[in-house]
């Protein structure tokens, strides 16, 4: 019995925590960093409460092509709400969306995107919105893969999240995506609870309706959690500087910069989309998830760049 | 040896987790609630991840008389900064403050308070501000007790925080006070880490100064975390409804209302300041920590009211 237990313990100690990562430089860098900060007595030991790790979502934890998944949600909402909004038949960006012409709808740039998100996200109570997101996630399918959107998460990143948590890291999402769009499924999908999700945030208004208190989503932008907004979101929600940051696009540049400029051991990592066959390949010229500045800076900043094609032996979890 | 261990285990099981609480109704109500939601198999069992408890700070975890402690901090900052602001000698509310006339300074109402807070809190980087708060907390003394401000915390509430955490609750501060004013000392004083502190929040701006990234505090109000702002702050930061809320003034009314209106077992508690001898006695007519609406509603809402005089055998921790 004792021998069996011992054998089991030894096999546990030697189990690979990152089996979907090839034995290339990024995996080695991650594991060296984690061992360094968790070895008590080492000069680079970091106490558990300071082991904060932040993850971008779109393109870092799940796919983001051919468009941000939240945009597909918004389009489905526009279609569902259209009968109540006859004016959308002629008003942009809604008219183009209802005709199925996403490209024309988005020709209006950030303003068009903002209008789409606000029209589909505001007005509901937080509980109504949570229900709408949960139902959509359970039924909607990605237009190219035909799979549920929350199955298009990266298996290597799921392993990384679990590995960090097993080493007493607290893992947070810090995403340009909507905070209330991510919270309903982030715990089940990533093991990240609602209070550890940071994202772009709209307004909220407290009301008592027929004796029942509700929080109503209002059409303001309280935090644009992208670019320079990411360190702001980190400070506002977490209140201390992370020691590790994981991103994939130039929208993550300041989050990586802020994280890795701190004192003591730091880790920055960029997921580079290089696998047209198993996922998508894009970087400097992409309209979504553009990665140019980050790719140039990675070497001087000491950030690890992961090539999905070379460094990951698996992309998505097996169904 | 086994007998000793057994005796130790039994004594642990019977140790009183709330020794500073008298054996009156509030203590009984707290312990019944905690036992109910933590007994697996019971109809009112709540899974650990949903055991969210929120605490007001001023008047609930520490004293708030004769003025909010953060105001003493702001006044000390005004004095320290005055040499750089000759205009404050004639400009209100600063002129009165510098003459030591707090009452005249605050005659300007919320606008005066806002000006004082912004003048003393904005302009610094988050790291500079943290240093200023930490130094002040280590040296400043309460004008009446002569004690450090963070020693004027309530021993019964420290026991309650520890008791809830021992029962797998996650404890949060949700305070009208400044989020960055509380974070530097909340972990050491209350065991509440920065990411579990919600408070009134100013603006933040990300800048790179001579190659070093900083977050600069700006003079805007992003969240007024009081009254209807408390449920908003809870949703923004925590993203789910707490099952227990602890407050002391009408500024906590909506937080208590929002928390206890949820489905399943809920707990709301109001600390009533009834002890002029050991602390302060005030409620309906107080200019600080006014408690009137909450006192009227407690019975119909099922909120527990703690009389500091009757229900607590100790107020402050022994030095």
Number of strands of chain A: 7
Second CATH tier, the architecture of the domain at 19-66 and 153-311 in chain A: 3-Layer(aba) Sandwich
- Using CB atoms under 8 Å apart, which protein chain pair has the greatest interface? A-B, 36 and 36 residues
Identify the strand order in the major beta sheet of chain A.
4-3-2-1-5-6-7
The succession of helices and strands of chain A, N to C, reads HHEHHHHHHEHEEHEHEHEH
Keywords (chains A, B): Hydrolase, Signal
Protein name (chains A, B): Haloacid dehalogenase-like hydrolase
Signal peptide (chains A, B): 1-15
Organism (chains A, B): Luteolibacter yonseiensis
Overall description:
With 319 residues, chain A is an alpha/beta fold. Chain A has a domain at 19-66 and 153-311: HAD superfamily/HAD-like (Rossmann fold, 3-Layer(aba) Sandwich), CATH 3.40.50. Chain A contains 13 helices and seven strands. In chain A, a hairpin with a 2-residue loop joins strand 3 (197-209) and strand 4 (212-223). The longest helix of chain A has 14 residues, at 25-38. The interface between A and B is large, with 36 and 36 residues. Chains A, B: Keywords: Hydrolase, Signal. Chains A, B: This is Haloacid dehalogenase-like hydrolase. Chains A, B: One of its GO terms (molecular function) is hydrolase activity.
List the helices and strands and how they pair.
2 copies of one chain form a homodimer.
Chain A: H1 2-14, H2 25-38, E1 52-55, H3 69-81, H4 94-98, H5 102-106, H6 109-121, H7 126-139, H8 155-166, E2 170-178, H9 179-190, E3 197-209, E4 212-223, H10 229-237, E5 244-247, H11 253-260, E6 267-272, H12 293-301, E7 304-307, H13 308-311
Parallel strand pairs in A: 1-2, 1-5, 2-3, 5-6, 6-7
Antiparallel strand pairs in A: 3-4
Helix pairs in contact in A: 3-6, 7-9, 10-11
Keywords (chains A, B): Hydrolase, Signal
Pfam family, one (chains A, B): HAD
GO molecular function (chains A, B): hydrolase activity
